[in-house]
Write a structure and sequence with these properties.
This protein has 14 helices and 7 strands. A 5-stranded mixed sheet has the order 1-2-3-4-7, with helices on both faces. Strand 2 and strand 3 form a beta hairpin. Helix 6 packs antiparallel against helix 7 and helix 11 packs antiparallel against helix 12.
């Protein structure tokens, strides 16, 4: 089960996919094509292999219903040496699907992870993929109610990114005051996202400053209730432990098959079976590194 800090920015982007275009174009300075619609797409890339590969979010810019540009969005909270191989699969598959440029947008709340994610990913000779990274240094500080009212989604993202930093309470108060002008459903979701990102002590202090009666906060939306009110943190920790114990080798095998598929290397039934039944995670990791430049699947699995 994905963790709450992982899901918060994704839920915001699902509610307002137009924010992705604003982040890419105005905040991160990426030239964008002409478009009239921003649409969330299916993020399942399972078709490239018989195993499951799913990006966090996939968004397409469209003009007259024609795709003009795709974006694969990934929220990354820690450095993971295997993740770049999966990102190659996501971007290559989406590029083949829409036949237009595709950006990889990595969102993180950790400056060290941001620097790691900016490193070019080698696909092969003269072939690299570079992520566009939205780290804590790129998210603007929205400190006034007026500014938050103009761009409420960006203000929510600002509160998620900076609310726990020194001076973050000013950001949180600005967006919470501005949310009162939104409709009940949209405002309720954003209100939950902001207040839910703080611990009980900070949340009660914010309620007092807003002249609200301090109380145990009752979440307004099903999204928030499902994550905050049902022991998600405990379940996530248990799920991670179980996954590490049971699925490490399986995950390495899936990543290897994905890299081979993305590079267009043929994998016969015997080779696929050898990969999927391998229980040596370290060997699988070596095969993954070799798969980036190998000329065949047999070369990847060679014991030479």
């Amino acid at each position: 089960m994905p963790s709450l800090p992982h899901e918060l920015p994704l839920e915001l982007l699902r509610q307002c996919p137009e924010l992705i275009a604003h982040l890419l174009g105005e905040v991160l300075g990426l030239p964008l094509p002409a478009y009239e619609e921003v649409r969330i797409e299916e993020s399942d890339f399972t078709q490239v292999t018989p195993t499951e590969f799913r990006a966090d979010l996939v968004v397409t810019l469209l003009q007259d219903e024609v795709p003009m540009m795709g974006t694969v969005v990934e929220v990354q909270r820690r450095m993971d040496p295997r993740k770049p191989y999966t990102w190659l699969v996501y971007v290559a598959t989406e590029r083949a699907r829409i036949e237009k440029p595709v950006a990889l947008l990595v969102i993180t709340d950790d400056a060290e992870v941001a620097n790691w994610a900016r490193k070019p990913i080698e696909f092969g000779p003269r072939s690299v993929l570079s992520a566009i990274v939205l780290g804590p240094g790129e998210v603007p500080w929205i400190r006034t109610e007026e500014e938050a009212s103009r761009r409420p989604e960006l203000a929510v993202l600002s509160a998620l990114a900076h609310g726990n930093e020194p001076g973050g309470r000013e950001v949180a108060l600005a967006v919470l005051k501005a949310l009162g002008a939104l409709d009940a459903e949209r405002g309720g979701i954003y209100y939950d996202l902001v207040l839910g990102s703080f611990d009980e002590e900070i949340r009660r202090a914010l309620e007092q400053e807003l002249q609200m009666q301090p109380r145990k906060y009752e979440y307004k939306t099903e999204f928030a209730r499902s994550y905050y009110a049902k022991g998600e943190a405990k379940g996530h920790a248990e799920g991670e432990a179980k996954g590490r114990a049971e699925g490490k080798a399986e995950g390495e095998a899936k990543a290897l098959l994905a890299v081979l598929a993305a590079r267009g290397l043929e994998v016969d039934a015997a080779t696929r079976e050898r990969i999927l039944t391998c229980t040596d995670a370290e060997k699988l990791e070596r095969w993954i590194v070799r798969a980036v430049t190998a000329s065949s699947a047999q070369e990847v699995l060679s014991d030479l």
